Hints:
Blueprint: E1 12-17, H1 23-32, E2 40-44, H2 45-58, E3 62-67, H3 74-83, E4 86-89, H4 92-100, E5 108-110, H5 117-125, E6 130-133, H6 136-145, E7 150-154, H7 178-187, E8 191-196, H8 208-226, E9 232-234, H9 248-261, E10 269-272, E11 283-296, E12 302-308, H10 317-321, E13 328-330, E14 337-343, E15 352-360, E16 367-370, E17 391-397, H11 398-405
Helix pairs in contact: 2-3, 7-8, 8-9
Amino acid sequence: MSTRVHQMERKCEFNILADNVKVQNVIDSILEHGPQEESIHVVDLDDIVKKHDIWLQQMSRVKPFYAVKCNDTQEIVQVLAKLGTGFDCASKREMEQILAMGVKPERIIFAQPAKPIESLIYAKKHEIKLMTFDGQYELHKIKQHFPEALLVLRFRYDSGKSYGTMGKKFGCDAESEAPGLLRLAKDLGLNVIGLSFHIGSAGDDWQSFMGAFEVARKTFDSAKNIGYNFTLLDIGGGFPGANCKPIDPYAKQINKAIDTYFANDSNVTFIAEPGRYYPTSAVTTITHVQSKRLVKDKDGKEIMYYYVNDGIFGTFYSAGHEKQQVYPVALNKEGPVKESAIWGPSCDPLDLIRPSVLLPDLQFGDFILFENTGGYSIVLANSFNGFPLPRLQIYVRESTWAMLQNSPIN
Ligand SMILES: Cc1ncc(COP(=O)(O)O)c(C=O)c1O
């Protein structure tokens, strides 16, 4: 029997740049080579470093545990490991990836409330003690397989503005369910050290954090009656990552919430699980037009369909499934614009990147660029219909590279 070819392998190239080279210079030189079969992710690692600096400046009291699920590109997680972030891992494979870099297990939270037993056994073996839970069955499972774990009870607090309500799947009700779960944990002799929540992803909603902190405060207080003196609050993800959406209002709100509800708790550690915050703006995707068609709708209105070499089974899952807007930029093209739609390459009618946008007249091989495409893109890409995965071209500036080389991982 022949060996099966691994069809999902990512093609990846790594380059060190002089400090004065801009992303735009890199993109220009890629474009000079003309259209390629795969779309290209231009990954700027300096942007990840910059994002981390901003986080530290604005939310120094909240330690980020990067949610690996958002973009697990090795070079990205390695930069974060060197910068000293923690990691939110949801699976055994993610934990393996992070530990393999030499990151200490204390820097990992296993933030998957519904854990496969195998991964729990793995976590125990590798001393990844910190983990979330939100139900009674999970508590019994943890008691059986990892009774020394440091548990974090996830409660539900939904922003209502995000693309998908996290609370539909995870998080207990803080008022009606948390006390019972904490009593059960106590009876089982388990060590619950704090709480977590996730307001939801991509909701542009900093306001919700105040309410979530208030619920957390009340639950910290009521837990004392059950014998738990919490020392950890994990405020989840939900931070924006595009370069046009700064985290300033989030940071302000969170700092205010800490001062409002936890001013007298110097023993409480705050952590967060930012996913899209870190990699989104680091990635620009280069696509090109492979086909086009002029279509008339039922009212006779014309729309130009462009079919490009990347779609919702590649970089743009979020555009298709979460209806998140992406912003195409037609390169080096001027002239009158026309109502257009941008489709992916597959035969699936769901494979629509942008249903309506004004674009100049584009020809086969013309480039369309998408900025801010580093979050929930390459991790969700597959080779449906036989189309290749985006190719990663990863860049870092010389001085950043030297700084990272000198930063040990521990
Ligand atoms: C438990 C958990 N933490 C963190 C994240 C990251 O969220 P975001 O990318 O919105 O920051 C997610 C995303 O699904 C999640 O499920």
